[in-house]
Amino acid sequence: MSVELIANVVGSLALLLSVWGLVRKTNDKLLIILSVSVLVWGVHYFLMNSIVGGIMHLIAAIGIFVADRMQSRGFSSRFWMASLFVALNLITGVVWWTGHWDAYAMAAAPILVYSQFCLKGHHMRMGFMAGEVAMFFYASALGSVPGMAVAMINLAAGAAGLTRMLLDNKSRVETVRSEVS
Length: 181
Known about the structure:
Layout (H helix, E strand, L loop, with lengths): L2 H21 L6 H18 L3 H19 L5 H21 L5 H18 L2 H22 L2 H36 L1
């Protein structure tokens, strides 16, 4: 079995985990699911010989797990922890820079990290979707077909989950209004 085939299989597994997390209509366990998915993406990018992508995804997996644990903390604590993870990602990009594609990963990192630590509800989903745009360009420049696919699918899944979330919230508001009337 070739390394490229293994990388594509691992990338496909990560893709399935990402989509499963994002199509759900609640954020319950979203960050844990995405943490596991991002860990698997890290393995995929290491197999693709992208040191920056692999390390940044491993940092991101830890960061997402920490963000999940910090959701009940105050904004200031979450912001400073996010800043630490952004700094780690940017330092990784500078130290292990291998080509222009690393700039896309470095652009995605702050968007995704601040979204997972500092945003809530539909704003978090919107931040993830913005980060996926930069990750699409990263995967495209690197030549990762599963990476490009997951970025596009995650955008669609994120939009579907966001729509379901907003419709569910609208439905709850209408139910409360009709009960009050």
